[in-house]
Amino acid sequence: MRALARLVFTLILLAIALAVGYYFGYRAAAGHGPSLVGSVVGTSGSKAAGEAGTAIERSLAQAGSEATAFFSDTALTTKITSKMSLDDHVEARNIRVSTSGGVVTLSGTARSSEERARAVALARDTKGVKSVIDKITVR
User: Fold this and answer.
1) CB of 71 within 8 A of CB of 18?
2) Please, is 32 exposed, middle or buried when counting C-beta atoms within 10 Å of its C-beta (0-12, 13-18, 19+)?
3) Full-prediction pTM beyond 0.90?
4) What is the mean pLDDT of each successive set of 10 residues along the chain, which is 139 residues long?
5) From the CB of residue 110, how many other CB atoms can be counted at a distance below 10 Å?
6) Helix (H) and strand (E) counts in the chain
7) Radius of gyration of the chain (CA)
8) The pLDDT value given to residue 42
9) pLDDT reported for residue 132
């Protein structure tokens, strides 16, 4: 029960972090976000200062996009791990999940080929997963 409460708390924190990262990355990339630099640097009247401010804003937008991608991969890993933990046919603690760019890698051991197939199916059926690399061995 304690592990379930910790998982729920982690999922809530992850959702909040995703929302904040997505919001700032999306808004800054679209040019609609708060101008963190332009309001300070742009007031000097210098063209070079304005260009520097624009470059910094672009860097912030890119960082926001990268953060969103990182949190998306983390969210996928968390979703798949949760699905396996709740499934009666998969021993989740023996299977490790890692995600990079929407590509999920499953590794570890399974008790049977059916358990292995079920773990792969759970990962493939998760929204946002582009592909699954199966490195699970049957013991």
Assistant:
1) yes
2) exposed
3) no
4) 74 74 63 51 60 73 64 85 91 92 94 95 92 95
5) 22
6) 4, 3
7) 21
8) 46
9) 96
Coarse DSSP helix, strand, coil percentages of the chain, rounded to the nearest 5 percent: 65, 15, 20
Confidence at residue 51, expressed as pLDDT on a 0 to 100 scale: 72
Could you give the number of structural domains in the chain? 1
Looking up tokens 């300070």, which residue turns up?
40
Residues in the chain: 139
Q: Look up the domain containing 76 and give its range.
A: 2-138
Q: Residue 30's pLDDT is what? A: 57
Nearest to 93 by CA among 101, 84, 102: 84
pLDDT given for residue 34 in this prediction: 52
CA 33 to each of CA 22, 23, 76: distance values in angstroms, whole numbers, following the listed order:
12, 9, 27
- Could you tell me the CA-to-CA distances from 29 to 17, 23, 43, 72, 83 in Å, in that order? 18, 10, 22, 17, 33
Nearest to 67 by CA among 27, 125, 109: 27
